[in-house]
């Protein structure tokens, strides 16, 4: 039941954030980061984060397609939120990139603090790939929107 309430709240906050409501965006981020502590009943069991990796592990991390898709989606969500708040495209993309990297770092820290999941610095690599994917989709959406608007005139 609590999971259903959390999911409904996340959807409501996401919809409000996409309309440019800043507090809803912040609430969505807090809710996402709070998932890990809530999942373990707020019983923190800190574990060390893996901070060192080599080139083969860095390349291997790019096979973490779930991170790429999730963080690509978060980038797109963040950029659309910024544009809905009347931010020009380039600053919106910069905001979204910074927010996505920060979210990735917060998720890794939450995993390390709770012992749920694996806190690894190298997980920021697929998050960065997600930023590239999200940016390409965002630019595609912007161009499609411009095309539709010009076709209407």
Write the layout of secondary structure elements.
Layout: H1 2-18, H2 22-39, H3 55-61, H4 65-84, H5 89-114, H6 124-152
Helix pairs in contact: 1-2, 2-5, 4-5, 4-6, 5-6
Summarize the structure.
This protein has 153 residues and is mainly α. It has helices at residues 2-18, 22-39, 55-61, 65-84, 89-114, 124-152.
Question: What this model shows, in words?
Answer:
This protein is mostly helical. It has one domain (2-152). It is 76% helix and 0% strand. The protein is built from six helices and no strands. It has helices at residues 2-18, 22-39, 55-61, 65-84, 89-114, 124-152. α1 runs antiparallel to α2.
Pick out its properties.
153 residues; mainly alpha; 76% helix
């Amino acid at each position: 039941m609590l999971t259903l309430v959390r999911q409904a709240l996340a959807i409501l906050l996401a919809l409000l954030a996409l309309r440019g409501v800043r507090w809803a965006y912040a609430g969505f981020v807090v809710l996402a980061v709070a998932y890990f502590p809530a999942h373990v009943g707020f019983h923190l069991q800190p574990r060390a984060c893996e901070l060192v990796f080599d080139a083969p592990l860095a390349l291997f991390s790019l096979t973490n397609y779930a991170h790429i898709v999730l963080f690509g989606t978060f980038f797109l969500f963040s950029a659309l939120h910024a544009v809905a708040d009347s931010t020009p495209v380039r600053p919106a993309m910069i905001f979204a990139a910074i927010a996505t990297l920060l979210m990735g770092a917060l998720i890794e820290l939450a995993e390390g603090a709770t012992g749920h999941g694996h806190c690894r610095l190298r997980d920021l690599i697929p998050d960065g790939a997600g930023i590239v994917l999200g940016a390409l989709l965002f630019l595609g959406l912007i161009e499609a929107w411009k095309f539709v608007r010009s076709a209407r005139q």
